[in-house]
Glycolate oxidase subunit GlcD (Mariprofundus ferrooxydans PV-1), 984 residues
Amino acid sequence: MPRRGIPKQSADELVRQLLELLPDESVLFGEEDQHPYECDGLSAYRQMPRVTVLPENVEQVQAVMRLCHRMQVPVVARGAGTGLSGGALPNPDGVLLSLAKLHNILDIDPIGRIARVQPGVRNLAISEAAVPFGLYYAPDPSSQIACTIGGNVAENSGGVHCLKYGLTVHNILKIKLVTPEGELLCVGSEALDSAGFDLAALMTGSEGMLGVFVEASVRLLPRPECVRLLLAAFDDVEKAGAAVGDIIAAGIIPGGLEMMDRMSINAAEDFVHAGYPRDAAAILLCELDGMRQEVDEQAEQAADILHRAGATEVRITRDEAERTLLWKGRKSAFPAVGRLAPDYYCMDGTIPRRHLPKVLRRIGELSKEFGLPVANVFHAGDGNLHPLILYDANISDELARAETFGGKILELCVEVGGSITGEHGVGMEKIDQMCVQFESAELSQFHAIKHAFDPDALLNPGKAVPTLHRCAEFGAMHVHAGQLPFPELERF
Amino acid sequence: MPRRGIPKQSADELVRQLLELLPDESVLFGEEDQHPYECDGLSAYRQMPRVTVLPENVEQVQAVMRLCHRMQVPVVARGAGTGLSGGALPNPDGVLLSLAKLHNILDIDPIGRIARVQPGVRNLAISEAAVPFGLYYAPDPSSQIACTIGGNVAENSGGVHCLKYGLTVHNILKIKLVTPEGELLCVGSEALDSAGFDLAALMTGSEGMLGVFVEASVRLLPRPECVRLLLAAFDDVEKAGAAVGDIIAAGIIPGGLEMMDRMSINAAEDFVHAGYPRDAAAILLCELDGMRQEVDEQAEQAADILHRAGATEVRITRDEAERTLLWKGRKSAFPAVGRLAPDYYCMDGTIPRRHLPKVLRRIGELSKEFGLPVANVFHAGDGNLHPLILYDANISDELARAETFGGKILELCVEVGGSITGEHGVGMEKIDQMCVQFESAELSQFHAIKHAFDPDALLNPGKAVPTLHRCAEFGAMHVHAGQLPFPELERF
């Protein structure tokens, strides 16, 4: 990559020292070069880093960390930048550390069912490399074609199949990481158990606050012999919510179990023509995987349960084309709903699934109280809600009403024992809501953990864990034409 | 419980203050009263605590912790005392805090598939309470009839079925704990995901070093419709080891996959007459569970694989009586082997399963080199080894040879990427071997974590994580007539 006319002698001391550690093309400090790194998937937050580095090996990562530690410069690690909570937003005074060049699959062990990979390996690439062994890597965030395993570990990514196969934390065995001091740590074990505190689990979901991941050993699973998708239509949202519990209570563990309400169904139909029943109040998409006989048997059982739960129609897909089309509607639901109103306010919380009917009913009541429509499209089996509140910021007080409404939904999640986060991490986006979720005792403990790994607070400062000082109120995410009217990045 | 003649006025200040916080019968300070608490399942380590308390509710636990914090008195938490690594060994200057009176199942949620229980609830009692819902709690340490969930969480307990269903850490959702300062913390979430650092996973396996657990929400699973056990005989240990990998590589995930070598087989046969083939060099016990059709299909497939791997005989159980008898031999293998020699030296380590044949061969070679017989009986699917080195401490240098031999086996586990721990925790027993497993960078990080939760080092001091100072050499466990010739508890 050319330096684009910025002479070395004009760079500051940090850049000069980085250029001594790394090849020239691995140190970016001009505005144009760094443009691709100024935001992640939450594109409304933008911040140019002081300098961007792309080390080519672990030793270079260590050298960068040692330098930054010596100079007390903040470091933000970055995978593919597909995160949705602003976790990889650069720090204006710091180094943006891209792991993109550490992109090798180091080893696949079919007997241990383990892949050992560098952090910049794409999620889907692991499964592709495991095809010859009949194996795959289960967690499948919707960005899996682009997102990298380093980012997945940092955010504890989920996906449609985490109901059955768990989150990233359940599929990670061992992690190598570089500390803020530049030391290499190896936590967890490829063997079943690991001695000492479970630092591999602690690392997973730590959002770049505790170390820079440079290698991960992940668990692989046998590919299922057979996959079928069921679509069930309901004339009532609560009935659909209750049916989710019925399926689980019957001992079935679907690969995925998704729900869409009427507004989402019709928005998706208008957008991609998936063949959904437009007159349904809600649909469930229930995917079953396993051995053929088992799947066929469970599909019949699930269809029975859905009928008994009041489904007006149940379809079982018989081929891949049918299955792909039904998923297409679900996967395009967000942009489809986005066409219905000038603005929408996207909430993301998780509740224990037994409370689905109650919470859905309450959201419906709140929708009437606040006079704002809501579209529900979400991972029902996981209790991971994504209510989309539609509003128009140009109409006086609608934004304020949407905000209060969204706040009520989050409070409801916490009230029933749920979580203010779904699968996107906290990052910048939800840092205020951490104050709703946790008491000061838990927050203080988070800070103690942070201090135990990063006493100088150099790693991804200002993300994921709010200061107690900040916890006076909570904010939430408002979307207007893809832009978020958020305050500037606050350093703390 | 009567006070047995020790007047309150003779008790020290700590005891007097505890008696103000708790009912009289919940504070034990006489030698006779405290006798049951002086050791856990590793009975060769014995130590009388200064005082034993049995609080009846969370508030009393908090009050005890606040008092101990104020007086800077060490606290050792204890469940049922069935642990095998001395993790619950009392501290002579401290309080032994039994959670036995917190033994209520608080809630079972069949839709969320979650049981919320107090720490003193027995492992098996959870599954028993879940029977009406067709559910059970999967981790099944062999002590499951007696051991409690608090201890299971502290030790990250395993069991025969952790190959398929994971360790305790994979089955715990939320933990309430009391800090050394007496504060109540709630970590994890009954919802799928939890915001902030994954402190619930960090707590699991922390061996009483980070907090006192007062409540756990555990995941329940649907009971399998059908269970079958296969027995496969081999004329060669390495072939049996390779067959383990073949089964896994074929995409089968057995509920359990156990291995016994000739010496174990014959010792078990002499002891309980399980019907094992006495002339086999090794047997595998492979349990399959799931839906009936699936299990039948997989049993046939596994039998084929075992035959192709060189099995001289494969049996598939058809009823519970047959299955129970075959398991009885496995479960009595340790005491059975114990009858073959005056002393045995029990190792417990885990290796990646692909290295099973190599490690088994190397153990056989070492057995010849050292002139000491070894019996192997272990969780083969998990790569969790339990070599039992037979020796006679009355014969000059046999103890020293057994010790060196055992050390070689542990080094071998670490060398192939395994772990010095299996499923029993580190406790007192393996604290020296932690120095083999970890570099000082990792050990320092463990200390930083400990400091983040327990800066005064009051919780279970001297267990699980060695000081760097201690890491000059490692020891191991020698059994002579059930007694361990270990040095006195070292405070550090």
Q: What stands out?
A: Chain A has three domains: 8-98, 105-222, 226-415.
